[in-house]
Here is the input.
Amino acid sequence: MGFLLFILKRFVRLLATVLIISTIIFFVIRVIPGDPALVIAGIDASDEEIASVRAKLGTDKPIGVQYIEWLGDIVRLDFGDSMISGEPVRELIFERFPLTLSLALMGISLGILIAIPLGVVSAVRRWSAWDYFGMLFSQVGMAIPSFWLAILLLLIFAVRFPLFPLFGLGSFRHLVLPALSLGFVRAAVILRLTRASMVEELSKEYVITARAKGLTETMVKYKHALRNALIPVVTITGIQFGYMLGGAIIIEQVFSLPGLGRLFLYGIYQRDFTLVQGGVVFIAVVFSLVNFLVDVLYSVINPKIRIS
Amino acid sequence: MSDRVNDSKNSGASRGAGSTGGTVLKIENLHVSFGEGETRARAVRGIDLEIHRGELHALVGESGSGKTVTSTCVLGLLPTPPAIIEAGSIYYKGHDHEGDLLQFSEDKRRRTRGREIAMVFQEPGKYLNPALRVGEQIMEMLRLHLGFRGEAAEQRALEILETVGLGGNRRVLRSFPHELSGGMKQRVMIAIAICCNPSLLIADEPTTALDVTLQMQILKLIMQLRHKFDMGILFISHDLAVVHDIADRVSVIYAGKIVESGSRDEIFNSPQHPYTRLLLASVPDAAKRGKKLVTISGKVPDAEHFPTGCAFHPRCPLAEKRCADEQPPAEKLDGSRSASCFCLGKEWPA
Here is the structure.
C-alpha cells in the first residue's frame, strides 16, 4: 500500500544519507594534513615502527580497499579503537549514550509539556494574559544562553535551596536541572511555532465548516484545528530531539555529566582521530534515524505528505 | 440566455411548483452593521426574505452587497463584535425548533447548526478538513446530532454517500479530501450538509469554483436533494444563468437591501427595478449577438459609504431628484413580486 511504500522510500533515503555522510567523513579524514600513524608512533619513531602502525591501522592499503573496509566497519558499527585509551570507540559511545538519551528524552518531554499547552492557549486566547506570558516566556527562553540558565538553576535549586544535587550521577534527581536547562530553550522554540501554527489553522476555512456543522467550540479547536496545527510542530520537535542526541556539550560541562558531548569534546582536545570519526558517524546515524521516525510519524498525522 | 439555460427550460415542467410547503425561514427587517462612528459600515439594511419548504430561493447580488453577511447571520456564525445585529428577526420553523433564531441561546443556536440549518461552501478544497478522513467528517455529525454510534454511523455515512452520488463505497469513507477530485469534494461537502436531514440548506456559490460540466452535475444533485428531503434552499449566487436554471424565487440584493423580489419567471421575463433590468441586460446571450453589451456605469458602493436615498441612484439611468433624498419603500406589485423604486414603469431612456 501507499503507506508501506512511503516508509520503504524513506528508509532507502536514510541509508543513502548515512552512506553519503560516511563517505564524506572518510575522505575528509584523509584530506586533513597529518598522518595518524605519525601521531600514534611519535615524532622520532623509525620507519619500521611507522610502517607497522600503518599496517595496524590499515592505512597502507589502497584507498579503494580502505573505503570498502570503512563502510563494512560502519555496517558493524565498528569504529575501531580509541587512539588514546585503546578501548573500542563503540564501547566508549555505548557507555555514554544512555545518559545522553535520558537527558534528551527528559529535556524534550519537559519542552513539549511546557510549550504545546501554553502555545495552544496563547493562540486560542490571543492577546490574553496567557498569551503575553507565553510570548514573554519564549522571548526570554530564546534569549538566555543555556549555560547561564544552567548556572542560575544550580545556584538557586542546588546551592541556595538544596533540592537537587550540585553535580554527579546516580539518580533521577541528578538529571532534573540539566534536563530543565535543556528543555527550556527547546520549549521557547516549540511554543512559538505551536502558537503561530494554531493561529494560522484557526483562520482557515475548514474551521468555519466545523462551526457550521454545529460542533462545540472544544471540538472545533482541539479536534479540527489542533490536529492540523501540530503537523509542523512534530517535525521541529523531532529535529530538536535529534540534535540533543548528539550530546549537549555545554550543559554536560556545567553539570559534570559524562555524556556523549563531553566524550567527543575530549576526543577533539586529544586529537583522538578514531573517536572523533566514530562520533561523527554515530551522530549522523542517530540523527538520520530520528529524522526517519519523524517522517513516519509526520505521514501518520499529515496524510497529504504520502502523495509526494 | 445560453443554450445550457434553454435546455433546462424545457425540462422546467418537472420542476417543483415552489412556495407550496410551510415557511421554513422568514427574515424580517434585518439590519447588520460593522464598526462604529466614522467607519461604521451598514452591510445589511433592512432585509426581508421568506423561504418555504422545498423552495429554492436565490439571493442574487454583486460581491459586497450583503449576501454573505445575511447567510452567515442566519447560520449564527457572524462574529459579534465586530458585527452588530441592530434590528430584525430571523424566524425559523424546522423539525424540533421554532422561533426567532436571534433570540435562541448560543447553545441552542449551535445545536440547530448542521442539524437543522446546514451550509455548503464555495471551495470544497478549502472547506474540508485536510487531516480528517471523509468518513469521520460525516460521522462526527451523525454522532453529535443524531446519536449514532459505531458501525451504525458508518453504515449511515455510506448511505449518505450513495445519496450524493458517490456510491456505497467504503474507500471514499476512508479517503482524505486531497485524494478526491474537485467534484467529489463538493459532493462530500453536500453529504456533510444533508446528513442530518436539515430543513434549510444555505448554498453559498456552491458551483463557482467548479468547471462547467461539474457545475451542472452539482446543481442537479442539489435540485434532487431538495425534492427528496423537502428542504428550503437559500442559494447565494452572482451567476444569473445558474439562478435562471434552478431558482423558484429570486431576490436581488443591492447595497444591503433587497431591491426586487419575485418568482423566477417574473424576475427574468419582466424585471421591474432598474438595477435588475440592467443586470439582466448585461448578461451575454446568443440573442444579443452583434449588439453592444449593456454595462452598468459606476461601481458598487462600499458599505461605509452607501449613497443616501436609493443606494442605486448614482448609477441609475432613471434617477429623479427625490431618489437621492428618500428611500423608496418596497412596493407590492402584481403576482408575488415586490420592488423598491420610485420610477417603476418609467420609460427607459434611449
In short: Chain A touches chain B through 23 residues (CB under 8 Å).
